[in-house]
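Here we describe the complex-level prediction in full. Unlike the single-chain runs in Section 2.1, the two entities below were treated as one system.
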Amino acid sequence: MAFVSSGYNPEKPLENRITDIGPRHYSDFLPPVIAKNKGKWLWHEIIEPGILMHKAESGDEVYTVRCGAARLLSVGMIREICDIADKFCGGHLRFTTRNNIEFMVGTLEEAKKLKEYLNSQKTSTGNYKFPVGGTGAGITNIVHTQGWVHCHTPATDASGTVKVVLDELFEEFQQMRLPAQVRIAMACCLNMCGAVHCSDIAILGYHRKPPIIDHEWLDNLCEIPLAVAACPVGAIRPTKKEIVTEKGETKTVNTVAIKTDRCMFCGNCYTMCPSLPLADKEGDGLVIMAGGKVSNRISNPKFSKVVVAFIPNEPPRWPTLAKTVRQILEAYAKDARKYERLGDWAERIGWERFFEKTGLEFSEHMIDDFRDPAYYTWRQTTNFKF
Amino acid sequence: MPKHETPLLDQLQSGPWPSFVTDIKEEAERRHKNERNVEFQVPVDVCDDLLGLLELSYNDGTTHWKHGGIVGVFGYGGGVIGRYCDQPEKFPGVAHFHTVRVAQPAGLYYTSEYLRQLCDIWEMRGSGLTNMHGSTGDIVLLGTTTPQLEEIFFELTHKMNTDLGGSGSNLRTPSCCLGESRCEWACYDTQELCYQMTMEYQDELHRPAFPYKFKFKFDGCPNCCVASIARSDMAFIGTWRDEIRIDQEAVAAYIGGELQPNAGAHSGRDWGPFDIQKEVIDLCPTECMWIEDGKLMINNRECTRCMHCINVMPRALRIGNDRGLSILVGAKAPILDGAQMGSLLVPFVKVEEPYDEIKEVIENIWEWWMEEGKNRERLGELIKRQGLAKAISVVGLKPMPQHVQEPRHNPYIFWKEEDVPGGWDRDIAEYRKHHQR
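The structure predicted for the assembly as a whole is:
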């Protein structure tokens, strides 16, 4: 593994240095029909699951074939995707914000051929490589975060939980039989890099144990005032403590103390101070939130609500998680009206009926007790259902 | 033979959905075979060790990645996220496994040529594993070692004319929906505005000077496909202020059943024949539509542009011609103080080069936030702490009913001294002349 230089000279780091050039301009990448008709599209249609057609003022049509992919992609897989783009689409492709891949062609016939080709590509273990779907009143790819694959604060895995949920709901990805689109999102801790807090169904990893304090190292690895200031509920204070070190010496160290009954396990202290880890096999697990959306259509955008307070981590296939998501989706599919998003359905029937129809159990953990916003979620009327 | 047994992960190789485990295993094999004769610059068994470490996490129920670490490229404060595993002896291939965020092209269109160049760099100088894409939108290259960082940056800039994205307390890589490139509902060119703002604020993107992260997201219409309203400190959402354009013949075709409602999105189930009264007129949140003499009528003054009717009948109804965008501020996920939705700051602004009006809003907001924001305080939290009225005043706007869902419930109004005739200084002696102690 000899070191190969790219041309960068560490002795003269500023020599030939190029900085702040930003991304490539998008016009370098647009397929010709897209570049030609940009800003002049008239309407679109979903011809069948996974195939969209856009019509331009010029009369041009572009057919898009959308397929799912694991967000984590190897360069080998990306090269395969490039081969497909070369073979069918003149070397052009795009990704959607939900990690689907879109290939664009000029005719319906080509689109159908491409769909068939994509659906025929299987891995050595029999999974689809590029399942076509993710359009209209169905589910699309689940956006997610890093989880145990690459993150330092997760309470669960992300790629694995998403894989099992998409296996469970696979036919909904390839169909459009739901009352409206259902957006599922996954974030592996409360930090929510995936911002799942406005999804129809959100899968969220979270911790349930206060941090362990690594007293011997804390003062060396962290700024104590930063760790104290990081806590949004004021549960951390500086203190001194007599400890026995790893080497067996007794000494007094500067460290922190935590009021554990105040902790809501957000992990912000750990982000500021690596000597306060809180991940734990039994403590960590998942919460399911439901009823959020970002679209302004018919009703205002809304936050997802906690509907299952805890599901244990059950790697590798998280069966309770997959089953519970299915349960929510089935109840919604059966009961909601056409165009009604999951949250709008829950609000129309009332949350008491939501729990009844989905078969989920309501517990004290679903009654908000975090600061002012909690008050606005309690019922202040006698208009409730038995 | 795989380097590590992975009985738990192997169970994720079944089922129809694409398996990331299979993909990583196949990449591991390709690296060992090395049919392309790549001079690998990180350990050849990096993928094997990643699987081994992940299997350990599946057993232990916790992550094995250590906390951060300060690494990056010269002169930048963002774009690289340091990552080390906590079992380096067992898994030396991933002892150092830093992430590189690469600025993505607006709208996420690519040519295979560009992606192949990226693959070549990443196969040689990294793990060969990526995220397409990270949650903020960047191309994410997963796993390399410190000595490779400058080399990767050099190759990205010199060979691919591409830069790193943002991380840390700076402007995160702005992202947008695909906009006018392939959507009839885009009220402005999201790709171009996203690109221009990214270029304008490169310094803020690469050199942390903010209290915490700051996200721009650009949505072409109120459908909000990049979720700007929920997850960006500043959301630019396309809208219009004139009339929805109606093609009455197409309306008739929807009523007559020749055209499928909602662009065919509901074709997987028999919902019965399309009923314009039930499916459009009665669902309009402002009740501003009706049928008169067989024609669809809209009282546009009452319309709030929710998009439902346009979504249901894309061939009959089109967005207006007087287009621009609304700016909403302060959205964020729950850490630290709870989730916040974007709040309306600028109801309407035209999107015209050189975008001075938009830049003025951005820069005024930043100036306030950088002055007043506490460490790790998102803009939304500052707005909660100091009030929306303050945010409105720092951008020089006049408060108006559009800014609120409803007026305040409590009369605890913080009047300013200059608002009250005579000010706050009064003379107690003068007061006592008329009021005994």
